[in-house]
Amino acid sequence: MPDQYLPVLFQVLIALGFAVFVLIASVVAGRAGRRNAIKDSAYECGMLPIGDGAPRFSVKFYMVAMLFVLFDIEVVFMYPWAVQFRELVAVSPVVLASMAGFAGILVVAYVYALKKGALSWKS
């Protein structure tokens, strides 16, 4: 039984040996590049960079983005249910009540977000 794994072991050893060989060859044969401020600066279409690379965003932006993602995912859960609605209701009317409960929880969450001012940009 162990002799069946011998080709796999050889392949792993050859792959590791090749990786080590290539890394050592690149260190031996390669040359270190010189660094300076111009080469290390960000390239922006030939213009000199002005200011920070990443602007600061308000926390409100992230709150609205997170709420959008959460409610968007909930709609994705509702879509397959809506496609199969006729077949599901024919089997059991409890399916309609369960989705109504799900939508009710979404409405409560939305009202809570509005009351907390999570969607207000001015405050």
The count of domains is 2
**What's the tally of helices?**
5
Structure classification: mainly alpha
Q: Report the β-strand fraction as a percent range.
A: under 5%
- The sequence of SSEs as H and E is HHHHH
Low-confidence sequence ranges: none
Radius of gyration: 29 Å
Task: Output mean pLDDT.
Answer: 85
Biggest sheet, in brief? none
Shape: flat
Instruction: Give me the count of strands.
Output: 0
Tell me the span between the first and last alpha carbons: 71 Å
Binned, the helix content reads 55-70%
Describe this structure in words.
The protein has 123 residues and is mainly α. It has 2 domains: 2-40; 59-116. 67% of the residues lie in helices and 0% in strands. It has 5 helices and no strands. It has helices spanning 6-29, 37-40, 59-83, 85-91, 94-116. The chain is flat and about 70 Å long. 0% of the residues are buried.
Name some characteristics of this structure.
single chain, 123 residues, mainly alpha, 2 domains, 5 helices, 67% helix, 0% strand
How are the SSEs placed, and which strands pair?
Layout: H1 6-29, H2 37-40, H3 59-83, H4 85-91, H5 94-116
Q: What is this entry, summarized?
A:
By secondary structure, the protein is mainly alpha-helical.
